[in-house]
Amino acid sequence: MKSTSLFSAVLLGATVASSAILSRDSGPSFSPKEPEDPIILLSKDESFHFELLFTLGNTMFGAGDVNDVLAAAKDVKAGNFTSWLETFHALAQSTKKQAEDADNAYDPLNVREAWFAASSYYRQADFYNHANWTDPRINGFWLEQRAAFDKALATLPVPGVRIQIPTDNSTIEAIWYTSAADGVKRPTLIIGNGYDASQEDSYHSFVVPALARGWNVMTYEGPGQPTVRRNDDIGFIPDWEKVLTPLIDELMNLKGCFVDEDRLVLVGVSMGGYLAARAAAFEPRIKALILNGGVWDVYEGYASQLTPDMKELLAAGKQEEFDEAALPLLDSPQVPTTMRWGLGHGLWCFKQHSPYLWLESLKQYTLDNVVEKINVPVLVVDSEFEGFFAGQPELVKDALGDNATYKFFNRTAGYHVQVGAGQEWNRYQFAWLNKTLGIHHLLPEKTGSLSLPIEWKESQQFPYLSAVVKETFRLHPPRGFLLERFVPDGGLQLPDGSFHPSIFGDDLESLDPERWLQRFDESEDDFNTRRSRMISASLTFGDGPRTCIGKNLSLLEIYKNISTLLLKY
């Protein structure tokens, strides 16, 4: 779920009774209230602000252009669902037209970027449009976003693969990603969202950063989630292990040769924090668990914030009166956006026509009597501006005991699921994974049979070490020999600080060993070409007949000594 408040109609009784427009401080929301918002607001409507921030934050991972989103923020009328739909649909259509331009096809990266952006905009056009189940655009927009996404998916260096997994009542939808189809077993993330986000959204938020770090990723959707809800006409189920277990079965059956079984990680995002925790309690193949955020009791998250009158109706089992109070909110422009959307989407994704029955069904969504079955390391994430499940991450952390690592994000990273702070989130997430799973300790596993001191041939097994050495040479070149320079008559004066970015890039003054490694979105041929150009421009030891006579001895000492120090200490 991208939005913290699944059903912000927790104040619906008061709203109906008073016929008043709720103020910003009247209920849970995404926008921070104390202290002040740490960033500029993208809309006067707090729900629209959050959704715009969600898309804007993902532009850095290929979900569109910054100015497209800012233009949409300028054009959308605050709180107007029709305006939102029309603005993003027009943006999706124009981006699709760019993707279909024949000239665009000359560059596969152009194709990928345009189709990913179009897909993202179609999903946003759909977001607030689930109150009327018969609206043909619910399925129409989704078919458009999927078609666009699949065209982009096919252009990845290792194309993503859609996988359908039949179960008793539905078909799980999944997508497999890997950074290199070379048969090497890599650590693998299984990523599931919650209340509203799709697995296509996960590509930008999670997959791109994971592939860049050499991970495999399997995204998925189960009952109640966008594609499965549409295809199989089924709402959410509480026993999420019925989704995860067949998913892992199929993963190991189809892609087991790529998966490091000792480093298989499950990630639950938003309400997916409950779903993932529940499933992990019954799935021993999961080796680590990330809950962003931690959700202890979905029902309590709603019921605790109901007005006394509404709690009384709920406790008394007065379904008809409760529903009569709630359902008019769907069409009332006086009701806050998050409330109208939360109610409409909640009924749709749980496949319930009655708000009362929907809330009653949520009593099954609790970690009570389940959490003690979780016996793996767990990262429990909390956020400063978490509105709906505030306080629940700490409950999850306390129940997990020593298995839990609790991380509290605040200020600009303090929005629900770190929306708009994707880099900070991913840095922390992967640092925790590396430490927890011993990925930074893979070196001893691979060097158990190495000599001490290490031999030259053995020292050449570590690409990152080689990248660090080359990058150090590049940043600290020696004073070289003088070469003839041919300039026009009268000479040529270069301004101080002049450089040409075509070889090392614009960040040539930064230490970045990874510039010497293959990027996840780069073909083998492109990498070899780029690497050869960098090597040709590196004259640390001279070149050709003027190569330093001590080059090989120097390299021998560097690689052997650094490798031995790393191995020993």
TrEMBL record:
Residues where heme binds: C548
Cofactors that this protein relies on: heme
UniProt feature coiled coil, ranges: none
One Pfam family matching this protein: Abhydrolase_6
Signal peptide limits: 1-20
Keyword tags: Heme, Iron, Metal-binding, Monooxygenase, Oxidoreductase, Signal
Keyword Signal assigned: yes
GO MF: heme binding; iron ion binding; monooxygenase activity; oxidoreductase activity, acting on paired donors, with incorporation or reduction of molecular oxygen
Source taxon at top rank: Eukaryota
InterPro entries reported for this sequence: AB_hydrolase_1, AB_hydrolase_fold, Cyt_P450, Cyt_P450_CS, Cyt_P450_E_grp-IV, Cyt_P450_sf, Cytochrome_P450_monoxygenase
Domain AB hydrolase-1: start-end pairs: 203-303
Family in the record: Belongs to the cytochrome P450 family.
Protein name listed in UniProt: AB hydrolase-1 domain-containing protein
Native organism: Colletotrichum cuscutae
